[in-house]
Amino acid sequence: MGELKVPTMAEMMAEGKQPEVLFWVGCAGSFDDRAKKITKAFVKLLNRAGVEFAVLGTEESCTGDPARRAGNEFLFQMQAMTNIEVLNGYEVSKIVTACPHCFNTLKNEYPSLGGNYKVMHHTQFLKSLLEEGKLGIEGGKFKGKRITYHDPCYLGRANGVYEAPRDLIRRLDVELVEMRKCRKAGLCCGAGGAQMFKEPEKGNKDVNVERTEQALETQPDIIAAGCPFCNTMMTDGVKSKEKEADIAVMDVAELIANADEI
Amino acid sequence: MAFIPNIVFAIVLVLGIGFFVRNVRKLVRNIRTGKPVDRSDHRRERLANMARIALGQQKMVVRPVAGILHIMVYLGFIVINLEVLEIIIDGLLGTHRVFSSLGGFYTVLIGTFEILAFLVLVSVIVFWIRRNIIRLQRFRKPEMKGWPKNDGNLILYFEMVLMVLFLVMNATDVPFQQMGRGNVISGIIAPWFGGLPEATLHLIERTAWWLHIVGILVFLNYLYYSKHLHIILAFPNTYFAGLAPKGQMDNLEAVTKEVKLMMDPNADPFAAPAGAEGEQGEMPEKFGASDVSDLNWVQLLSAYTCTECGRCTSECPANQTGKKLSPRKIMMDTRDRLEEVGKNIDNNGTFVADNKSLLDDYITREELWACTSCNACVEACPVSINPLSIILDMRRYLVMEQSAAPAELNNMMTNIENNGAPWPYNQMDRLNWKNE
Questions:
Q1: Beta bridge partner(s), residue A23
Q2: Domain of B12?
Q3: What is the Cα–Cα distance from A212 to A223, expressed in whole angstroms?
Q4: Of B218, B240, B262, at which residue does a domain stop?
Q5: How many domains does chain B have?
Q6: Domains in chain A, start-ordered, CATH in brackets?
Q7: What is the pTM of this model?
Q8: In chain A, what residues touch B317 (CB-CB under 8 Å)?
């Protein structure tokens, strides 16, 4: 992998330039070891397609999603208004993010607090790059593999985005197999609503294990996800079934970025 | 003396409808104890939703077996009610089958009623088998014990009896059978009564006629005490349901005001709150919901609309993995508490504090914290109920009024507050991944 070009908004501004899109990395994408790989894969694709983008870098902060879902409206609105001040200061008009939680919050919950942006999930953005001919999906590293796609709740049910990630996966000449619970009926990975940050309540199974079992029913080579939290949950689920040697959990951006690496 | 049946009928009818109206008024009053929320916008979209989801039963067929059976009962219910109109006119005027003068059209009408009545009967029997013999899992959850279970069965018995009475009434109507038109189903049943003297047949017919109409009025009045209210409330509930994307939570305006004040560099932090002197005694707004009066009226309407089908619960990831949370129970608890509050108002004229609340006395914290906010319950509901909104409003109360979040979530929130991420990483390290 060559050197990644990741300009910040501040650097761009100093040069008097305005990027066409802001890449909102998100907390997981910035700090979580697994999610950082997704971030880099996406940046690699942005670089390859020659997209003029920038990140906020150290000026980025949590959107407030987990605080809001946990019930802390104060903290959410503090985060939101601080972020909106930064975003509006840079006159940001278009945002792309690889995290469905950031996507949902930026897209649906910031407008009423004064933050109006065109917000895209990275799978939607990648699809538009393909359609504009800026990005080609080459190579067949995954050709013929069985891939099942797990719908992140905050991308699917919450915002009705079901096809963009699937369209991208199909381009890889793979066999896309659906779980019995998919799209609108997709089962949660167990991380949403701030569950990521706490132990689950008493029950007889963990949600991510249940979902992983549904994924394993399709006998996949790869479980594809479009959310760093789903990725963690499904990875843990695959490990709990001791299948990590056979089944990879990968983000859609990673699939595309790595397709040509033999 | 010939008018006695007509007078008795009129009295029964007035009592039946009058009592129903009284309960509807109570229902509306209880729903209005909820907080205001404006749903007067997007009328066209709301009407379309109502037409599609309630009238068109769009979401029922997501589960094909239950969906198709339900559509039969639903169609039967709507169409057979035309027959009730005839019964009412006959009852009041002392006529017999007043619409039969419509000729061929009446034949088609009655024929349709009879076929639908038969289909309703079959469907309702299958429903009963699903509940009591097959014992589908979603009808066996802990919240379905006792009254909810009996309520479900009672409704089915009501419908079975009403349909049987309707068919028997037609089968024993000698002139109607002799006419031999439109008696598609009752014509098959009629021979079962063969050999009975005409007077006995007439007596059976009259008895079935009376029991049928009285049964309908009793059933009408049973609605208020039952989960069966959905046959009416599904329409307003699908109309008034939220239109925003499912992932979007509403803003708490009171919080927005305070946060804006905190972020305003010109604000004087030591100044008395605006309007504090002029509006002495005004309670600061409570954050979130601990009781039904903190919920908005659409949430309360939804509680009455819920027919306890359990599709939400069977799709809930927490419930599927054995946690206590059941979105259906959230709605049932909300209704039970609202009914309790309503009775309190009936007895005292106004609500008198009873040291109880929706939180803890009905819905436990454990249930609330088990939710992943995945919206599966919202998606699953065939009548656009949003149990998630109640869960999140109650979490808001727990966190903002009681600081009672689980310790791990408090850590997460402290991290966001201090370093802008749910984990203890420094904001200055946010771009480190670039060089790793």
A1: A96
A2: 4-240
A3: 9
A4: B240
A5: 2
A6: 9-130 (3.40.50), 139-258 (3.40.50)
A7: 0.95
A8: 187-188, 190, 207, 210-211
Nearest to B222 by CA among B167, B327, B150: B150
Torsion angle in degrees (nearest 10) through CA of A89, A91, A95, A101:
30
Q: At A11, which amino acid appears?
A: E
Q: Which residues of B touch A157 (CB under 8 A)?
A: 246-247, 374-376, 378-379
If asked whether residues B31 and B173 sit together in one domain, one would say yes
Residue B245 to residue A62, Cβ atoms within 8 A:
no
| End residue of a domain, out of B196, B217, B240 | B240
The ipTM of this complex is 0.96
Model confidence at B278: pLDDT above 60: no
CB contact under 8 A, B373 and A207: no
Q: What is the pLDDT of residues A125-138, one digit of tens each?
A: 999 999 999 998 86
Q: Residue B433 and residue A61: Cβ atoms within 8 Å?
A: no
Name the nearest CA neighbour of A211 among A192, A186, A183: A186
Domain-embedded: residue B247? no
Question: Does B397 score more than 50 pLDDT?
Answer: yes
What is the per-residue pLDDT across B42-100, written as a single tens digit (0 to 9) for each?
Answer: 999 999 999 999 999 999 999 999 999 999 999 998 888 888 999 999 999 999 999 98
d(CA B321, CA A45): 38
Residues B286 and B224 in one domain: no
Residue B41 CA from chain centroid, whole number: 23
Size of interface A-B (CB pairs under 8 A): 217
Å from A162 to nearest chain B CA? Answer: 14
**Are residues B323 and A202, on separate chains, in Cβ contact within 8 Å?**
yes
The model's pLDDT over A194-225, given as tens digits with 9 standing for 90+, comes to: 999 999 999 999 999 999 999 999 999 999 99
Clarify whether residues B91 and B225 are in a common domain.
yes
A201 contacts in B (CB within 8 Å)? Answer: 318, 323-325, 366, 369-370
B290 & B405 share domain:
yes
